[in-house]
Structure formats: structure tokens, C-alpha cells
Amino acid sequence: GRAGHEAAAGRAAGGPGVGAAAAPHAGRCRGAHQRGTRHRGRRCLSPHRLHLLPAALLLLQECCLQRHDPRAAAALQQNLDKKLFGQHLVSKVVVKAVRGFLNNTNAKKPLALSLHGWTGTGKNFVSKIVAESIYKRGLQSKYVHQFVATLHFPHAHSINLYKDQLQSWIRGNVSVCPRSLFIFDEMDKMHAGLIDSIKPFLDYYELLDGVSYRQAIFIFLSNAGAEKITEVALDFWRNGRTREDIQLTDIQNALSVSVFNNKNSGFWHSTLIDRNLIDYFIPFLPLEYKHVKMCVRVEIESRGYAVDEDIVSRIAEEMTYFPREERIYSDKGCKTVDAKLDYYYDF
């Protein structure tokens, strides 16, 4: 997917770049979980035989996932618990949804998750962790395809071209690997109506032109609906209840309605919502001061430094918080933590 995206950046039309969609990723090893299959000089082995490969060859080994590795869900849970802060709803829903879908041998439709919340609350991080739980190379996997609205679909006058390209890209890649993962970032900046072009792929069809899309996963990322999420969180706070008291049922319906009616969202009056093809609308709550400090600590540790609580506090205090009176939530979440750490450490 990344090669196609890089090509897209240079296209005059600015589309997602699907010139190779008719036969993308020709190096795929079909049925790798079942048997050793030679393909263009490479052999894919079942997971229990991978130890037979020399280390150098193992690094090159990547096959389309056909059967779920039970360790993936545990790794997904562990990574979210360790690295995602203040998002109890996200951890619970994402793990259950992904695990259940991967374990379901007779899914009736693809899995579609829509992640909503302010910048810096963890949406891109969660999509990255999901990709890594399915494919070892994560976002770098040739079976993971990431679209950014402002990069791949910048021009309103080219929307019909984008629709054709997007359909071709999805059709071609799912034909090659049924367990393909598609991530759509900046849905709040996507032109209304464009995303409806993928509606057939998310619906309950067994086959479309001989291709089944029921094993694919679609993840949508958006800032749309963040105001509604904050409204619910503030209501709980003002009523003396903790954020952990918030349940998905307290937000999900209001969130989907808010996104559906948001004229500045790619989901505005979308048939994906109208036809209930989005399985979960997952709210990312705005982060508090204590969560920002958690982010700072993890980032310091990841750089190999001992945690200095004075620096942790200073960085957290440099953030701006809202609402103006209460100053509860960071307006950038943990987005600028990495850059702020550069100021305090001489690398």
C-alpha cells in the first residue's frame, strides 16, 4: 500500500494511486498457513515451521493472514493497557471487536470501526497497534493500506475519479489478500459522498464479482464528534462521576447522529451510517493532566532515560487546557509531548 501511496503523491489528479490495483502485491504467498507454497522463488511456511527458515529469510517473510493467531489478541490487549491512557472504552471495545472478528470463521460482513475524538487522544496510535496485532510489519505491511484525506483526495472536482480509484484499489488488494486492513485518516476532512463509494464492500454480500470482502477490516479516524464526546465527559465530571463510569451506551448513539449530521465530515449523510454498516463508533475521551504526565513518562522511558518527575510536571503544565474555567482537558492531548521533550534533553 505504501508504494501506491507514494505514487499517489505525485499524481496530478491527487488520487490514491491504483495503477497496480488489477494485480497488486504480486509477491503474495497464498495459503501460507496451510502449506508451503513457492511463489516467485519464495516459499511461505505455516507458522509452526517458520523456525526452519534462516534468520535473513525470515525477515523477508510476510504472507497474507488466513487464520487468526490467538496470541494477537493478547498482544493487542497488552499494548493498549501499557501505552494507551485514559481510554477505558477504547481498550475494551477494540480488543473485543477485533478478537471476535478474527476468531469468527463465518463473518457476515467486514469489520468497520470508526474512531472519534480530539487530536492527540490516541486514534492513530490505536490503528497502528491493531495493524501490528495482525501483521508483524504493522503499517509497513503490504496488506495494510492507509489513506489520508488531504493527501490522497485533495480536490473536490476530482471526486468521481477518486471513487473509481478507491474502488479499484480495495477490490484489487482484497482479491490478493482477503484479510486486508484499510485505514482512512482525516475523515472529517474528506469530501462528503466519497466514502459512500465503498459501501458495497462493507455490506452483507457473500460475493461481489467473485470476491468476498468479509474478512477485511476498515478503520476510520476522525475529529468529528469530539464536541459531543467532551459534552458527555464534562457532564459526568460536573456530576461528580469519574470518566471510568462512562459506558459506550452513554455516547455511541449520540456520537453517530452527530457525525451523520456534521456537514464538515466525510460521513455527512453517509449511507455507511444510514445502513448501519459501521459496527462501532468508538469515542476517545479528552485527556486530563494526569494522562499527559503518563504520556511524558512513557516517552522518556522509550528514549532510555530515567524518569525525572520535575520534567514530567513541567511539560504537563506547559500544555493548554479547556474549558477555560475548569481547565480539565488538554487541547492537544499528548500530541506535542515528543517535541517538548527535545527541549529538555540534549540528544
UniProtKB/TrEMBL annotation:
Compositionally biased, Basic residues: which spans?
27-42
Q: Please name the SUPFAM superfamilies in this protein's record.
A: P-loop containing nucleoside triphosphate hydrolases (SSF52540)
Fetch the Pfam families from UniProt: TOR1A_C (PF21376), Torsin (PF06309)
**What Gene3D superfamilies does the record tag this protein with?**
P-loop containing nucleotide triphosphate hydrolases
Topology term for the membrane: Peripheral membrane protein
Kindly state the subunit structure of this protein: Homohexamer. Interacts with TOR1B; the interaction may be specific of neural tissues. Interacts (ATP-bound) with TOR1AIP1 and TOR1AIP2; the interactions induce ATPase activity. Interacts with KLHL14; preferentially when ATP-free. Interacts with KLC1 (via TPR repeats); the interaction associates TOR1A with the kinesin oligomeric complex. Interacts with COPS4; the interaction associates TOR1A with the CSN complex. Interacts with SNAPIN; the interaction is direct and associates SNAPIN with the CSN complex. Interacts with STON2.
Q: What is this protein called?
A: Torsin
Q: Which organism is it from?
A: Serinus canaria
Q: What is the lineage of its organism?
A: Eukaryota, Metazoa, Chordata, Craniata, Vertebrata
The UniProt gene name for this protein comes to TOR1A
